[in-house]
Amino acid sequence: MPDDPNSENLNVGIIGAGAMGRGIAQVAAVGGCIVKLYDKNPKVSIDAVEFVDKMLSRAIEKNKITALDAENAVKRIKIVNKISEFKDVDVIIEAATEDLNIKREIFQEVESVVSKETIIASNTSSLSITTIASKFEYPDRLAGFHFFNPVPLMKLVEVINGFRTKPGVLDFLVGLGKRLGREPVLVSDAPGFLVNQVGRGYTVEAAHACNEGVASFSRIDEIMRDAACFKMGPFELMDLTGIDVTHPATKLIYEQFYHEPRFRPSTLMQSRMEGGFLGRKSGEGFYRYEDGKQVANVQIKTSPYDGRAVWVSRSNLESYPEIIKLITSLGGNLDNGTHPGKESIIIIAPLGVDATTAALKEQLEPRQVIAIDTLFSLTKRRTLMRTPITKSEISSSAYGLFGADSVPVSIIQDSPGFITQRIIAMIVNIGCSIAQFGGATPKDIDKAVVLGLGYPLGPLAFGDSLGVMRVFKILDSIFKITGDPRYRPTLWLRRRAALGISLLTLDNQV
Predict the structure, then answer these.
(1) Which of 209, 378, 456, 461 is the most exposed place for a label (fewest CB within 10 A)?
(2) Which phi and psi (to 5°) does residue 362 adopt?
């Protein structure tokens, strides 16, 4: 086994010259490695080298690399037409089709050629490293080395530990990842590894909410972008990656976890894929695209605030002062009575509870009730939620009031947990599950999600910032109302909420 991933003459073999393989070849060559690139289709390899040359030319224009370094990097990539030409490489990175049988065939040929000391790594995003290694002559040399697309821009690489992987192999790949300018994170072998597990919380939970009729996909996107500060809404993201990529990956993770409810796919995603609504690549997904640009949705016009009185429930004492201050600043006419007037707008701020349940528990008239989401700041977007029988004039007036200062407002149908509460709590809970089962350290879980998915915070940091007990209450309430085990809080979350400690807190070891 090679000792030093920073060796000047480190020889790296890459199998597969598609989007991932050529990206890995680029960062390896820029990192000073000698690269041998193989694809079963020689033309793909030629195209890959030309693509790398083009990408590095753009990098020169942006002053990210010198012309000499770019030229030398391209020269370090050598196309080979037979796997037998890998006999002298130090490490092989496989980036072939995501098919277990194809990968096994490749590795069987590789093992017949290379030294028993050669490290072998798979860029698989979903297949078990332990399962792949089970047919190896030397299974302890295999590990996962999962890059993210586009490789040159995405700094994360997951280093996956199979059951038989030698520690030295992991140490080598961590060092190699750093040499290639990546941020390596050690991850245990599990379906979806780390990042792809957490990513299900964002896209799949959004799809379930949309499928339940809580809000349209565009409304969910605007809420998650503006209120929760995500770079892209979940449906915009699925259109970008392709539903034919996202949904099969979701199904695979769900099945490999023996139908764990947290990963249950949505029929919305299945029907879209079967109907050919794949996203940007097909010109239409959740949105339509013309000349590669998203076609804007028509904005709904609503009535202004009609001046009626507004009564605010004190059931959420944490949010009560903020809501009162906001209504006053917007020119709202406060109803200061012990009980709301018969024509007043009744404002509640539930956590994990739908507007109907909250209204009935507080013995409030559901026809007058509007719920407001206070999980995040109310300065960028405000989300209002009706009961099934909230009067239209109440909804319109509340919409006009809360949008009086031009901050955008979204109205959704009744749902336990609004949109942000459901999605963020699911992301946090999946992160807690990974920590509970030792998939990665809490700090690495957060680092991987921020780098690999671009979320504003990692799942555990999200839980800490919003309040561990608040997140627990959201999940526990949704679970009790729906009876759906998707929402059952993990023991990691439950215990840390009860103890009042950070989700990043490790269990003490004897």
Answers:
(1) 456
(2) -90, 5
- By three-state DSSP, how is residue 461 classified? helix
Take residue 374 and report the two structure tokens written for it.
Answer: 């206070």
Phi, psi of 181 (to 5 degrees): 80, 20
DSSP state of 143: E
CB distance 95 to 52 below 8 Å: no
Residue 253 three-state SS: helix
Q: Is the dihedral of CA 98, 440, 27, 35 positive or negative?
A: negative
Structural domains of the chain ordered from first start = 11-188 (3.40.50.720), 195-294 (1.10.1040.50), 309-412 (3.40.50.720)
The 3-state DSSP class for residue 148 equals coil
**pLDDT tens-digit map of 422-440:** 999 999 999 999 999 999 9
For the entire predicted model, the pTM comes to: 0.95
Place of tokens 């080979």: 80
> Which H or E run contains 325?
helix 320-329
* Buried b or exposed e, range 430-454, using 16+ CB within 10 angstroms: bbbbbbeeebbbbebbbbbbbbbbe
Residues known to be catalytic: 125, 146, 158, 196
Which residue is associated with the tokens 């439950």? Answer: 494
Structure-token pair, residue 20: 């991932």
The helix or strand, by DSSP H or E, that contains position 345, with its residue range, turns out to be strand 345-348
Residues of the chain with pLDDT under 70: 298-301, 510
